[in-house]
Amino acid sequence: MRPTLDEVAAEVARFAPGAPATVPLEADLVQDLGYDSVRLVELFILIGDRFGLELPIDDILGGPALTVRGLARHAGAT
């Protein structure tokens, strides 16, 4: 099942340490939302499990997927 941008953003907000109820799509997961490397890996696994996807973690770390929109695109969001 392909997630929507809003569904990915909601999961990011729910899982982020101290994040608001909604997050901007351009929010950086590390700098804006406080994710550390372990939390990022946990988020990618959570998104993968939630939507039945295989997200290649090595391809995501350090790339454009470090924004909410980038992660959503990487997850095939519609």
Keywords:
78 residues; globular; 4 helices
Structural account:
This protein is 47% helix and 0% strand. The mean pLDDT is 84. The termini are close together. With 78 residues, it is mainly α. The longest helix has 15 residues, at 37-51. The protein is globular. The chain is built from four helices and no strands.
Task: Reconstruct the topology from this structure.
Elements (H helix, E strand, L loop, with lengths): L4 H11 L21 H15 L5 H4 L7 H7 L4
Mean pLDDT across all amino acids: 84
Helix content bin: 40-55%
Quick one: how many beta strands?
A: 0
Q: Any low-confidence stretches, pLDDT <50, length ≥5?
A: none
Distance between the termini: 10 Å
Count up the helices. Answer: 4
Q: Taking Cα atoms only, what radius of gyration do you get, to the nearest Å? A: 11 Å
- Taken from the alpha-carbon principal axes, the silhouette is globular
